[in-house]
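Hello,

Our lab assistant flagged a job as stuck in the queue for most of the afternoon. It eventually completed. Since we weren't sure the result was trustworthy after the delay, we are filing this so someone can double-check. Below is the sequence as submitted and the structure that was eventually returned. Let us know if re-running is recommended.
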Amino acid sequence: MKSTKSNNYVSIFKYLMLVPIVLVLVSIIIGAIFNFNLDYDFRKISNFTVKFNTTVTESDYKTLEQGIDKIISDNDISDYRLERVGKGAQNGVFVRIANDCDKLDDKIESIKATIEETLISSVESIESDVVVSTSDTGFSLPKNVTKMIWLSVLTFACILLFVFAYMWIRFNLMAGCSLISTLAIEVVTLLAAIICFRIPLNTYFVVPFVVMILTTVIYSTIMNNYIKNTLSNEKYDKVTNSERVAETTKRFLLPLGIVSLFIVVAIMIVMFFGGASLIYLGLAIIVGLIIAYLASLYVNTSFWALTYKRDKDTVLKRRIEQAKIKEEQRKAGQKPDDKVVV
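-- returned structure --
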């Protein structure tokens, strides 16, 4: 480890922290103007089924879906989703329309009538003998998001406490403090990113945060193991914290990046075969993984480098002394004391 200006990357820390600050400020402005972009789980949704009353081919299915889509969009409705339902003669399309405050009740009934009367004539010729009908209009009420948020906050606080204790016992006090500070920044950053990018929140909104936290804990543990070994090695006694974490980051930048990339690709494959809600969830998870990767490499290590004092680490001193005792016993031909823990 050489002391060079390029290695002293901790000095970049203050610039890196501008990212979450800017995101938070932008998210506050966007949130104040547009509020949260809630998915259908947290909104009132009107729904009905367009029944074909026969088995339709794949090409006919696509043609009929396009016709339904055009009829709905022609009625100045943009927030809706179409899902295929049924099998065989029960084939159809399930239509869900965001209907906050029941503003679209009359328009939805008009759309249903238009679909029944004009769908077949408005599309290109189809092979299947389709008889279009629509079901009665139903609705789903929004779920209680406040309760879920409070439970998530309580769970996050418990996770922080556990992670702090784990990192303190396994490594040192500053490792625990650095990680919980990093996790707090990550949660705020991910929430701000979700608001800025207008990613809808659904009932699984906690999953991206859980994935991000677990990824950060795993990555940080791997990196702290390497740092711990250098702290106990006399070869690195004169190395500064900045140089120590710079070397650690350089060592794990590519391996952890490859792991993260594989996870992102796997999520994108799943998103490709999923519906709208799954796509939104996948996007949030990917953003969380990117935040976890960068924060583990730079934010967490920078916090540690700025706060850790090697000469005040009593746990490290005991470990070094115990290691010396075992080494002296080995050189003297004595059996090392099993009670000595390194």
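-- support follow-up --
The delay was a queue issue, not a problem with the job. The result is valid. The chain has two domains: 9-36+144-319, 44-140. The two ends are 25 Å apart (CA to CA).
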